[in-house]
Amino acid sequence: MITFKEVSKRYKTGRQWVDAVKPTSLHIEKGHIQGIIGFSGAGKSTLLRMANLLEQPTAGEVYIDGQELTGLSTGELREARRSIGMIFQHYNLLSNETCAANVEFVLKAAKLPSRERKKRVEECLEIVGLAEKARQYPAQLSGGQKQRVAIARALANNPKVLLCDEPTSALDPVTTLSILEFLEKINREFQVTIMLVTHEIQVAKRLCSRVAVMENGAITEQLDMSLPAVKPATPLGQFLFDTEGEGFRGSHPGLKIGDY
Amino acid sequence: MDHILALKSEIIKAIGQTCTMVSISVAAAVMIGMPIGILLFLTAPGHLRSNRPVYRVASYAVNLVRSFPFLILLVALIPFSRMIVGTAIGPLAASVSLSVAAIPFYARLVEQSLREVPKGVIEAAVASGASMKHIVWGVLLSEARPGLVSGLTVTVISFISYSAAAGTVGGGGIGDLAIRYGYQRFDTEVMVACIVILVVIVQLVQWVGSFTASRLDKRK
Ligand SMILES: Nc1ncnc2c1ncn2[C@@H]1O[C@H](COP(=O)(O)OP(=O)(O)OP(=O)(O)O)[C@@H](O)[C@H]1O
Ligand SMILES: [Mg+2]
Questions:
Q1: What's the CATH number for A2-83+161-259?
Q2: Does A260 score more than 50 pLDDT?
């Protein structure tokens, strides 16, 4: 459903070049929940943002449902983006608009007629259990509720794919769990393929069918979470999986914290 | 007091002239300055339609007009005013120069307020496949609403004061009345009356502006 073919991203900061993502290939099957895990600066967000071309890859190709995004015109790309939902760590809702208007925005973007828009807005807020908050403004909601509005907005145009950039990183553990349950439900009921960036191993373990470990702009291993025992091969993968629960007291032979 | 009452009709006429000049220049600021402000925002480096040459030219033009002391602009634009409204004197002629000054003034304020819209919110709209027009109306202008109104308030108040200089080209207005009677003829009473009127107008504009801006702001 989502395919990265030798994509890379190089930024220029001042005189220096930064390889945020080195040439990377990744294929995400339809219906899967693919996690991307790694430390800060590993290039996770950059990779995710290339999936809908919010970041233009320096080289390589991106395919969504067989369509090559990297070759599209501006108009075609806009069209394609309507079937790619996205949610963010800081929700990114319109603060001067009500929850309903936030969801309606993307339906207007897809040029849905007014009558159908109203109906779809209600449906989407219903899915995330916030129908009664339709007339409220984001500032009147809790963080978890804001993220649910953002999920409703991302779902409105019946996307095939949902991109999530640290959607629970600003939330407490209980709220995190409720958001993860909504994401799971969306994946199950609407067969939405999810690509999720996180630095929390618990989030990846709870939700993902596959987890890619990312380090210094490259995917160093891809773990199949459906296996009875997940055996990471890289020091970073082992660190992430083995030290769960120990917090940062845990260390692992072979991983030099100084590297990060 | 009788003295002021005797000038009643002149004062009312002056208030009317001030209103004419301020309305015309502020209307120009909104209709022309706002689009220029949006253009500045969109074409700035790293923004949605980033275009260095266009940004440079627009930015340079805005700075150029803004760096003129208003009196000099007023005089320099006399031929231009004559071309546009057929005369170089009177409130209409002064409105031409005032508009020329108000357009870049508000354009910068619009650009500033648009920059305060969080990048992530714009990005979410881009990711949803919204058109540029939809993003400008539905995200930028909508999210920046309180700032745009505050900027407009600042513009109105500044141009009430700028319009006083319009007396130079016979523009009239309440500020001009204060200068003619109070400053040139040492008629303190009329000057004080004019200043009181200006103070009341400015307070009123500020109050309406602040009230509207806070009503439009849903962030808190
Ligand atoms: N617009 C940019 N300009 C220059 N460098 C950038 C830009 N965006 C990202 N980078 C660099 O690319 C690298 C990867 O950044 P990225 O945001 O993808 O990391 P991340 O894995 O998402 O980290 P985090 O967990 O902190 O969000 C970092 O070194 C970052 O400094
Ligand atoms: Mg990130």
A1: 3.40.50.300
A2: no
